[in-house]
Structure formats: structure tokens, C-alpha cells
Amino acid sequence: MPTETPNPPESNINQIVTRIFSTHRITRADQKIFMATLLSKDSLSAEEQSQIDRVFDGLRQGLLRVVD
């Protein structure tokens, strides 16, 4: 049975993003949380969208490393 990742409140997204940029690493679990958040909502708050865009931009620029 597939396990579902619960949608975190916006404050948790902010905490995750803060941790990601302080360590310069993003885990697969973090990625799952972001993807679940993106796919489960009809619309994101401006803050949520900004935080998630910041992470994806960091990945594209090579500022973050994906770890398991």
C-alpha cells in the first residue's frame, strides 16, 4: 500500500526551507512534502509558492544537494 505524505501547515514549510538552506541539502522526504503540497492544493498561498520556488531555484543553481 502506498503511504501518503500529509500536507504540512505553512509554518512547517517555512521551517523545512530554513533547514534546507542552512544545510544546503534537501532530502527525498522534503521533496515528497513539496510535491504533495503542490499537487494537493488548488492554489498555494503566496508565501508557500515563494518558499517552494526558492528551493527549486536553489536546486537549479546548484546551491542545494539532494541527499537520501
Secondary-structure blueprint of this entry?
Blueprint: H1 10-23, E1 25-27, H2 28-40, H3 46-60, E2 65-67
Parallel strand pairs: 1-2
Helix pairs in contact: 1-3
Describe the structure.
This protein is mainly alpha-helical. Helices cover 62% and strands 9% of the residues. The protein has three helices and two strands, in the order αβααβ. The protein has helices spanning 10-23, 28-40, 46-60, and strands spanning 25-27, 65-67. α1 (10-23) packs parallel to α3. It is globular and about 30 Å long.
Order of helices and strands: HEHHE
Give the percentage of residues in beta strands: 5-15%
Main β-sheet description: 2 strands, parallel
What structural category do the secondary elements indicate? mainly alpha
Q: Treating each run of at least 4 consecutive H or I residues as one helix, how many helices? A: 3
Rg measurement, Å: 12 Å
Low-confidence stretches: none
What's the helical proportion of residues?
55-70%
Number of strands: 2
The span between the termini is 21 Å
Strand order of the largest sheet: 1-2
Mean pLDDT: 84
- What spatial form do the alpha-carbon principal axes imply? globular
